[in-house]
TrEMBL record:
<dbReference type="Pfam" id="PF11306">
    <property type="entry name" value="DUF3108"/>
</dbReference>
<protein>
    <submittedName>
        <fullName>DUF3108 domain-containing protein</fullName>
    </submittedName>
</protein>
<feature type="signal peptide">
    <location>
        <begin position="1"/>
        <end position="27"/>
    </location>
</feature>
<keyword id="KW-0732">Signal</keyword>
<dbReference type="InterPro" id="IPR021457">
    <property type="entry name" value="DUF3108"/>
</dbReference>
Length: 283
């Protein structure tokens, strides 16, 4: 995997998944759609140290509480110099009152002349099957993924959906009070969010307040501790800017950033367009 794809795949796996980084507004119309069908299309930019390296795309359909999304990523800007790799991901499932219940996740990408593939089926709050390529190399150091690790998890793409109960008096800051249990087919990890501050943003399809959460990546299983320590990934600063779109209590990342050895990695919407549905702020 090239130097271009390594930081993107690593960060995406922590919060938005490889080849799914473009799906920031996945739930923008989910609770405002009722039984109607709503569709969303978007284009997203990925930069490192201010230089554009990739472009993401998204198509989404939400009907009632069911969602289905397809996202893709390809090199752009200076990224075309260092990599010809590209990939895509799909996810589907249902939105609960305060959680997400995914049913299927697939991802396929090619980078540095290698193919990466994931097919995960979920149901009843657990992973029913998982097919991945390539397989993890055997190592006595690697922490084994057990059935317990694959219960009550979400796939990387569905992990960006953050419904919050409309409790009386609940503040928007409460969206940061959560831990996302993610399984990507190879590894199991948590993303722990905590409240930092409120900000105002404009443009890119959303104008208004965002909740800024600090994010911490916590390895659970499937990893090699020595590799994690050497990479320093646990100590890298990450944050997510979450926007309440429309009148719903669904929050989605407006911007995600992470410190890397080569500069700050930023994933941010370039333009978003919604078709159908109602009470949405993304236009």
């Amino acid at each position: 995997m090239s130097q271009f794809t390594k930081p993107i795949r690593s960060f995406a796996a922590h919060l938005v998944a490889a080849a799914a980084i473009s799906a920031f507004s996945l739930a923008a119309v989910a609770q405002g759609a009722s039984a109607q069908t709503a569709r969303l299309g978007g284009v997203y930019d990925v930069t490192v140290a201010g230089l554009k390296i990739a472009r993401g795309s998204l198509s989404l359909v939400v009907q009632g509480n069911a969602y289905s999304a397809k996202a893709g990523m390809e090199p752009a800007g200076i990224g075309t110099i260092f990599s010809t790799g590209k990939g895509g991901a799909q996810a589907s499932g249902w939105l609960g009152r305060d959680n997400v219940r995914p049913s299927r996740y697939t991802m396929a990408s090619r980078a540095a002349d290698r193919d990466f593939y994931v097919d995960i089926a979920l149901g009843g709050g657990r992973v029913k099957s998982a097919d991945v390529t390539p397989k993890l190399k055997k190592s006595p150091e690697r922490i084994k993924v057990t059935p317990q690790h694959t219960r009550k998890v979400v796939d990387p793409l569905s992990a960006i959906l953050m419904p919050v109960p409309a409790n009386k008096g609940a503040k928007n800051e409460a969206v940061c009070d959560r831990t996302l249990p993610v399984y990507d087919g190879w590894t199991r990890f948590d993303i722990q969010l905590s409240y930092k501050e409120m900000r105002e943003v404009s443009g890119r399809g959303y104008d208004g307040p965002v909740v800024v959460c600090e994010a911490r990546w916590i390895p659970v299983a499937g990893h090699r501790p020595s590799r994690i320590k050497a990479s320093g990934i646990e100590n890298r600063y990450m944050e997510a800017w979450l926007a309440p779109l429309g009148k719903s209590r669904v929050f989605v990342p407006y911007r995600i950033q992470m410190a890397t050895a080569t500069g700050t990695l930023v994933v941010e919407a370039n333009r978003i367009k919604v078709y159908g549905g109602k009470d949405t702020a993304a236009r």
